[in-house]
Write a structure and sequence with these properties.
Strand order of the largest sheet: 4-3-16-17-18
Number of strands: 19
Structural class: alpha+beta
Shape: globular
Strand content: 15-25%
Length: 367
């Protein structure tokens, strides 16, 4: 694994905007890329598949041991979450964040519900590779996996129409939704877009503003927000993508459960409810996003920290992971699991050890 300097393509901004990527300013970078050997990619792919299997085991453990509802998940949703799991409601995707030094990936967290960087991971960096490094490969079967996963979803449910929802005033969410919707169309689904604010709950059923029933809905909207705003809506007669059981994976308590179950896994970092003797750790809010309210402690002293509005539901304390530094940048591997299998990866890097909403996306190649 190494970071190499690259000349940006002439007119690349226009090229990526023509592919639907308009929220790139200050985020997408073509001045550098990361180069990997095939053995490193195989290690990341293996870690992704094994970590997803362990996450599924963790959900089963939480259900069997009745260790939830947890903070942030209302008691009255327990039966609905269990039912969603036992029905094996299908999941579309998720993104693992790994610290990687070229040897063994270390799991930092699982973005299981509304992961970002999908469009740029899938279409944009592949288009870049094809033009700049056409003879190289890339760990990127994301688009094909998305299309196949939507075919599997339709094969299971067979609905006449599938709705896709987000808060449309958010440009990143809207353009990401448009990409996901296009993948569903390529898979043969009949699709319709709706704003989250326009979905109306009527006697246990969601309807659009014009009265159409929402039977199946992909939502780019976090479960914890829905649980706070409308627990009744979480139990509506709607098939959700991501399914309700994903709420047990989409919070940092999952990291503690993984460590309890798999303390000897090479991928799992020690994680607990309090420092309890840890001198170097990362303090993370249970329901946190984009690196907000994170504190890094090294040998008992604060190394870095970020502000934000999260943390009211508590924190976990995870053993600190060593993130290699390249040219003053700290890269994090975002490895995608789609339809239950590893599908590709992207890299975000920062000049700090905490990856946040100011981190930059850097493409990669395999040599």
């Amino acid at each position: 694994m190494r970071r190499i300097n690259v000349r940006p393509r002439n007119g690349y901004k226009q090229k990526i905007e023509e592919l639907g990527f308009c929220f790139h300013e200050g985020y997408w970078k073509e001045e550098a890329c990361y180069e990997f050997g095939m053995a490193e990619i195989e290690a990341i792919e293996k870690a992704t598949n094994e970590c997803y299997a362990m996450c599924c085991d963790a959900v089963q453990h939480m259900i069997d041991s009745e260790t939830f509802p947890m903070d942030g998940i209302p008691q009255r949703l327990k039966d609905a979450i269990v039912a969603s799991w036992e029905k094996d409601d299908l999941s579309l995707y998720g993104r693992f964040d790994f610290a990687f030094d070229g040897n063994t990936p270390k799991l930092l967290e699982f973005n299981a519900d509304t992961p970002t960087s999908l469009l740029e991971c899938s279409v944009i960096q592949w288009d870049w590779k094809q033009e700049v490094f056409p003879s190289c490969d890339q760990f990127n079967g994301i688009h094909e996996a998305l299309v196949q996963s939507f075919r599997d979803i339709h094969g299971r449910y067979g609905f006449g129409k599938y709705h896709f929802a987000c808060c449309r005033e958010n440009l990143e969410d809207e353009e990401t939704l448009q990409y996901i919707l296009s993948a569903a169309m390529e898979a043969g689904l009949d699709v319709a877009e709706v704003s989250m604010e326009q979905m109306l709950l009527d006697d246990g059923v969601f309807r659009t503003a014009n009265g159409d029933r929402v039977e199946c809905c992909f939502k780019l909207y976090p479960w914890e927000w829905m649980m706070t705003e409308s627990p009744e809506g979480c139990m509506a007669d709607t098939v959700w993508i991501e399914p309700l059981w994903k709420s047990l994976m989409s919070n940092k308590l999952l990291l503690r459960v993984l460590y309890d179950l798999y303390p000897d896994s090479p991928y799992i970092l020690k994680c607990q409810n309090a420092p309890n003797g840890l001198k170097s750790y990362c303090k993370k809010p249970i329901f946190g996003r984009e690196g907000a309210n994170v504190v890094l402690v090294k040998d008992g002293s604060v190394l870095e920290q970020t502000g934000g509005e999260y943390g009211n539901d508590g924190y976990v304390y995870q053993e600190i992971a060593d993130i290699p530094c390249f040219d003053g940048k700290y890269p994090i591997i975002g490895s995608w699991v789609i339809g239950g299998e590893a599908a590709g990866m992207g890299i975000r890097e920062s000049s700090t050890r905490i990856t946040d909403n100011m981190s930059e996306f850097i493409p990669h190649i395999i040599k």
